Amino acid sequence: MKKKKALTDLFPILCIDGPTGFIVSKNADITMAFELQAPEIFAVSDTEYDALHDVLVRAAKVLPVGYMVHKQDLFIEDVYTPAFESEFLRSSNYMVWENERHFSDRPYLRHRCYLYVTRPATPPLKRTSGQSSLLKRHLVPKEMQESRTWAEFGDVVNQFAAIVQDSGKMKLHRLTPNELLDNGEQTGLFQRYFSLSLDDPTLHDIDLTDGLTVAGQRTYTYTLSELDDFPNEVYNSARLEQFSTDSSHFPISTGSALGMLLPFNHIYNQVLLIEDGHALTNQLVKEVKRHTSFAAWSKENEVSIRSKDAFMDEVKDRNRRVVRAHYNVLVFHRDPDVADTYRSQTAAAISKLGFKPKLASHDAETLFWSCIPGNIAEIGADNLATCFLEEATALWNTETNYRDDFFCKNGLLLTDRFGRPCMVDPFFGPMERGIIANRNFMVVGPSGSGKSFTMNNMVFYLLSHGMHISLVDVGGSYKRLCALMGGRYVTYEPDNPIEFNPFYSRDLDPDEETKDALANLLMALWKKDGEPATKAEEVTIANIVHEYYGAMRRAREAGDEPFTCFDSFYEFTRDTYPAIFARNMGSEREFNLNNFLYVLRPFHADNQYGYLLNSRRNIDLMELPFVVYELDNIKDHPVLFPITTIMIMNTYVRKLFSVKGVLKMLIIEEAWKALAKENFAHFLRWCSKTVRKHLGSLGVVTQEVDDLVGNPIVKDAIINNSPIKFLLDHQNYEKRFPEIMQTLSLSEKQADIILSINKGKDPNRPPYNDLALLLGDYCKVYGLEVSRTAYGTFTTERSEVEQINELAKVAYGNDLESAVKGWARGERAGGYLPVNAQGVPMLHPNGRAPKPVNGATHYSKP
């Protein structure tokens, strides 16, 4: 029976030095520790990978000979746990809860990356892995006791960190003593390593009885440390085939194959030792001379001579930096069978890189021990391979997870490309960070790509966060969402015609912006499209509006309660204003009052359109959080359609100036006939440049970018002033994509990312679709996946919409919310509903069983 030893007695770290924060090993090696924030995976171009690689190389070149860099990436399996006690969830409706339940226990990979720079007390090349402190002790060299040595070390490492930090490609955070050790609030660095966890504060023992077991988890270690195991060429990035197409190249870092792309528990250690290139060259010269003397006896000597000559030429002619490198991957799991599966998958990943996988069998424990933070100098010369700095750093993992949180107060629920749920904030966070200059956006996706579904999801979450949305639609894609969210659905039906009241004012004293919008409305009703207005006409109409509200206020002061609407405005203009006009020395030459009254007469009282501008119901549209203007039934009407679009403009402008403290969004959903009108196009241009000043946002949804290009005003307003873009699947437009790139001013990087949409989708996940989010030059692909209940709310598939509507009518007394929930459970109209395990019909939320249809007496899943 093997004798047990206390881990505290063997632990190789002596202390954390208080004044400097250095990690000090019992060998007197000193280490400065950082947490490194790498770029997000699947959002980096080939050029950016080259820049990242260049930063690492330049930073390593400032380190003196003998210094070591240890990069340690921890990847830990976890599951998503909804924060049901959070304020947002407590105050949210059932769809938010259903979505959270849908993602509950969804597995994902947590990643932490640490960077340690070590000054060994004695040369690591004079040590072997058999001299590990796990087995024996070392004396402390005298120079490590001098303060000058520590000061020089701090200066050098700070230079190293400054190069990395100042590049803007990666961020380094110097770990403080409180972060290195458990402080009661967060788990310390050593506890994380010895527990193989990011949260367990316990310093676990290790068991060497049957392989290496750490914290009860079976481990396997693969190493890359012998040149014979390396491929002939190593690059810092590679083509990710699953996201690439015939015309696009999707890059990924070479090291990611052992990083984020290994979807299970593992630690990836990457080690550099700065070698003395001159000393190595002198040694190689001696070896070449010896090989030369034996060249006639063996061809192997000739090969060795050529290889070493080529190596020395690289060092001298190109000033290449020589280093010793080591890489190892530690995989682990509590279930030995699962750990064995991880082992085989890791071997396959190493083989795909072109390396020979080597499983550490006898030295796994000493490798684990040497990779303790601050103890890398014990790695041993037998575990280090000689190579150039550029090739050594090419194998580093330089990506991390998407940094979107599980929750943010203005976020939309999406997933990363691994399926992890996240709340993405396109409108507020990027504005605060200076990534975008306004909150205008556009959504572009061909027919069938899921635009309406995407927009339903977006609108739902924005409303849940308290924002105001005015939405112009053609096609009825938001009727169900509007009903479930308590919005106002404004549409035209023969027995319920569309109606507005832009004149209504509670206090009879509207602000100047509202009166200006009203004057513009009256001008649009009077003049034909493209007909210019004179300055006298503009002044007169503005004066009529001003005098009208003055008259209404005087009427209220006299004890009357006037209702402001078009009728009272028209009667004031007809009966009262002529005297005011004459008193102001107005003449028919400057303003034809009779013509003005004649053209506007159809909108008065019982005339043809007397209902349109006299509503007593839609007087609060600018105050409502959610209003949908459905224009499908009037999109071809020569009068109702243009006036309705004018009213939408008028109402939104009034909302901008009257509703304070919340984002006010106007979304135009496929209403392109409105955009063809000059007035509306000018309005959109005004919105695109002005709404940001009033916490507003203009959004446009279209099938093709070409729809926007035809009108130069619209192109200028929308494309050039929409820094936020949502692009859906464009695979069918791959051959035309250069045109789309030019129209949207996309970079090659963005094009490659966009063309990867819906490629490489996970077949084990519930159905979902990808979308690309562009924020200025920034671009990432997310997945849109929701619960079955949310799907029932957002779907625009005709057959599914009919099923839900029929279920509401037949089984739920037109209760749409209950029908959506029932449909999500599998219920369908016709009297058939799910039964429980005992075969008893399931009751409605109100406790009553639905009335069977067509004589049905039982319920079952369809």
TrEMBL record:
InterPro entries: Conjugation_ATPase_TraG (IPR022509), F-pilin_assembly_TraC (IPR053155), P-loop_NTPase (IPR027417), P-loop_TraG (IPR043964), TraG_N_Bacteroidetes (IPR024451). Residues 2-53 form the TraG N-terminal Bacteroidetes domain. It holds the Pfam family P-loop_TraG. Residues 411-825 form the TraG P-loop domain. This is TraG family conjugative transposon ATPase. It comes from the Bacteria. PANTHER family: CONJUGATIVE TRANSFER: ASSEMBLY (PTHR38467:SF1), PTHR38467. Coiled coil: none annotated. It comes from Rudanella paleaurantiibacter.
